[in-house]
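OP here, attaching both records as promised.
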Amino acid sequence: MTTAGPGATEAAGAAPAREFRRALGLFDGTMLVIGSMIGSGIFIVSADIARTVGSGGWLLAVWLVTGLMTVTGALAYGELAGMMPHAGGQYVYLRESYNPLTGFLYGWTFFLVIQTGTIAAVGVAFAKFTAVLIPSLGDSTVLFSAGPVRVTAQRLVAILNVAVLTAVNTQGITGGKWIQNVFTSAKTAALAGLIALGLVAGASLGVFRANLATFWDATTTHASAGGAAAPVPLAGIALLGALGVAMVGSLFSSDAWNNVTFTAGETVNPRRNIPLSLAIGTGAVTVLYLLANVAYLAVLPVAGTPGAADAAGRGIQFAAADRVATAAMSVILGPAAAAVMAVLIMVSTFGCNNGLILSGARVYYAMARDGVFFRSAGKLNAKGVPGAALVVQCVWACLLCLSGTYADLLDYVIFAVLLFYILTVIGIFRLRRTRPGAERPYRAFGYPVLPALYVVAALAIAVDLLVLKPAYTWPGLGIVVLGIPAFFAWKATETPRS
């Protein structure tokens, strides 16, 4: 099978061979993991989780289980990263564990929706919080409208966010690396400060003590037409189902940790540094996410009323526009909270999108080298990065920003994303059997028990979504299945580069 390694020699008479430049060390890889994971989700999705499970204990349980799954998955991926330190990461793992079609189906879905849809969504999140500071840049400011096409100031800011970061990353790995390191360090420190502020201020409010009184009282809550909340008690199978649905938000807030595997071609000593980056990065984010939710519980009641006049009355469940972190900080900082949180989330989403843009193009590069993506995407530019792949990714992500459909598409691929994670971890078992003599500088921690538990837990969530959220799961499977004829079409017209 083709290995997506360093760039190959160009045609006769062309410039000398271009190769990836190994410029990412352990710190850079760890910043890429943390920065790609922390976007806007941790500041928002706890509201929906609280409405779904109804109490502080179950809210923390959702984040804890998500964190354990994420770290376990990352530890398992470390073995594959050590075995196959090539550009493309998970695409390469699936291709080598199963067959080229399986790898392509991942790459197809990754390009159409998973990565580009996430880039669009994060770009729009950046734009939304920019509008908090500059209201004229909001979605209500329409710049152009023609039929289904509607260009607003918010969408234009999102497109500029994606385009600027793409342009920086076409100029070499160094610029993208420094943006990642600076913005990830800044937002990690800011999130830690938010946590500390919440815990210190909450110690004197007595809110956490009140939340403890209903800590394990599971309910699901919906707002009625009149604005009143109607909690419904949960127990048994209904509770398990609610927990699975609630984990959708936390899983996506914890996603993208695998992106560091895509950059193996540019990582110094990738067999060591990528597994370590995965372990350190996912562990750090899991701790930060848990502590952030403890801080929310320290200053806001879980339950609330949709139409309440203040943040405390709305609680975590009905924080305005689901902005839980802003609501929590408003209790402490007052009116200044909106601006402070807007700046924090702008920093967070800017760094997050840089990591997504930087790493995602390496998957299309690997696919193009295998003859199943645009040929130009398989070339490195004069700066040693896949410039054409970055541009193609940018164009599609910007179209998704413009269309406004990225959120729906992301909902549709929840099930597919879980399946690809499951298949990748199962690939460890397959490769242990089919390639027992392969070099494994790192072996999956807790093998075979922990990887097997990951597969079981992810399968349980996938089945839960299949039953309770069929409107989202089946379209996602449809997108994956459409990749089958696309694969054979690519193979009929493209040939792998030597």
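Record two, same layout:
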Amino acid sequence: MNEKKTILNYNQALEKSEKYCAYQERCQSEVRNKLYEWGLYSKEVESIIAELVTNRFINEERFAKAYTSGKFRIKQWGRIKIKNELKKRKLSEYCINTAIEEIPEQEYLDSLKKLIFKKAKLIKKTNNYIYKNKLAAYAVSKGFERDLVWKVIENILK
């Protein structure tokens, strides 16, 4: 079946977008996409975005910090993957760097070690070279820096 596009007037869209932003942290690009989905035109969309920023429903730096914290602590993502996802959401370098700097270095290393230990239990150890490469590939795919991954693997598997 065809989904009918919801067409809202300005006030309805503003109220609905305030609820959308109050439910969870959102960035401008997410809200902008949602407003277009609701059938608004670009002048209305930009006006609503400006009003949401003014009324502090949208704050890019706050969003970046919340997103980074969640993806790091819950999904065990590394800095590279988090940065790439924030860039996809068109956040400024300043917001991205500020959020990434909030990750405690020791917690980051502990998370990487835990991730590698967990994966090591699941991989069949036949050849040491292949075993290490599989561990490294997994950690890198989670967004951790390649040199840091290898350093941790070499320390763990002495």
